[in-house]
Amino acid sequence: MTDLLGKSETKNIAKPNTQKLSGNETKKLEMSSTRAKKIKHSYDVKDAENALLLKTKYGDVIIEMFPDVAPNHVARIKELVRQGFYNGLKFHRVIEGFMAQAGCPRGDGTGGSGKKLKAEFNRMRHQRGTVSMARAMNPDSADSQFFICYADCPWLDGQYTIWGNVISGMEFVDMLKKGGGQSGMVADPADEIVAMSIIADL
After folding, report:
1. pLDDT at position 44
2. Is residue 11 part of a domain?
3. Is 89 in a helix, a strand, or coil?
4. What total of structural domains would you count in the chain?
């Protein structure tokens, strides 16, 4: 099970006019290239190729990625995003004041994409909005699961690979359904990643 370790444990380790159209008709409408370009530029990011749009039912979350400090993790995340891997996956573990974790295709923390990543631990700090890779005890066991920090978590620094940061929409991450017990596992129905895209691809 890909899990985060507790503090004590890690001490040691233009809107289209569709008013007259029915719902079925509007679903079939194609977005013009001009409108798509406007939407892309509406996200204030430094590098659209290294920025993610994570859609939740509450609102859009924008994540800036750090290919300079975690190049292999960023490359793999982008590969999975472009495959549509994350679409519909649950935030299966959410702990108030700690973090929200997603990216498990089984929805219980035991699954992944089948490709393990060598750790890219860096000097960045786990703070509110930090996006980092979940893993098992083996440092090189990260796969597809990641977590977003709700608060500063200094005991995780140097233990997990930080690859991004939420630059917009953290208030929507705050709204995710919280789990129960010490593990923070969320009982069904859990909130989902509605869709995840690279902003350059919009």
Report:
1. 84
2. no
3. coil
4. 1
Contacts of residue 3, defined as CB under 8 A and 6 or more positions apart, other chains included, come to 93, 109, 134, 136, 183
In a domain, 2, yes or no: no
Q: Evaluate the CA torsion angle 148, 38, 198, 45 in order and state its sign.
A: negative
What are residue 151's DSSP bridge partners?
Answer: none
Q: What span, in angstroms and rounded, lies between the C-alpha atoms of 151 and 130?
A: 9
Residue 38 host element (H or E): helix 33-42
CATH number at 125 reads 2.40.100.10
Half-sphere exposure of 127 (CA within 13 A, CB side): 6
* 93: β partners: 101, 185
51 located within any domain: yes
β 60-65/146-149 pair status:
unpaired
Q: Which domain holds residue 160?
A: 19-201
SS3 label, residue 5: coil
Tell me: the pLDDT tens digits for 79-124? Answer: 999 999 999 999 999 999 999 999 999 999 999 999 999 999 999 9
Tokens, residue 19: 């008013």
Please indicate, yes or no, if residue 10 is contained in any of the structural domains.
no
113-155 confidence digits (pLDDT tens): 999 999 999 999 999 999 999 999 999 999 999 999 999 999 9
Please tell me the predicted confidence (pLDDT) of residue 34. Answer: 57
Give all strands (DSSP E) within the chain, no chain letters. Answer: 51-55, 60-65, 93-95, 99-102, 130-133, 146-149, 162-168, 195-198
